[in-house]
Amino acid sequence: MDYMIREIKKSEYPLLADFLYEAIFVPDCVEPPPKSIIVSPELQVYLEQFGELKDDRGLVAEIGGNVVGAVWVRIMNDYGHIDNKTPSFAISLYKEYRGLGIGTAMMRSMLSLLKDSGYGRASLAVQKYNYAVKMYQNVGFEIVEENSEEYIMVNML
Fold it and tell me: What sequence ranges are listed for the domain N-acetyltransferase (predicted)?
């Protein structure tokens, strides 16, 4: 499948709300939450004023002129927060584009962008049973902390 990874355009920032919802891990046999969940304060940190802060970075995956995935980072007090110098990741693809290597390519592109921008590390939080844990490890993230539900992972750029 041919895809392109490129910087997100300002006009595409509203798509991040859709991708934030898609990023919510829902185990099999569990009813997904309503889309309105993204207005909760703990999720709004990923979206509020995106693009206005100096550490905001975003990339999208595009197929046939359509955005099918997004990865974005910012320094925020989210689930994967390490400190005020380390950007936290959010990444998602529409379901039909998962498992094709696009997410891995987006992660690698963002990690490269962060390294080239002078960051020393990046972080994320992921639920322990999320299939993406292996992908994060494959691109260099390591578990540095955990709680009953999640791993906090860091990539030393």
Answer: 3-157
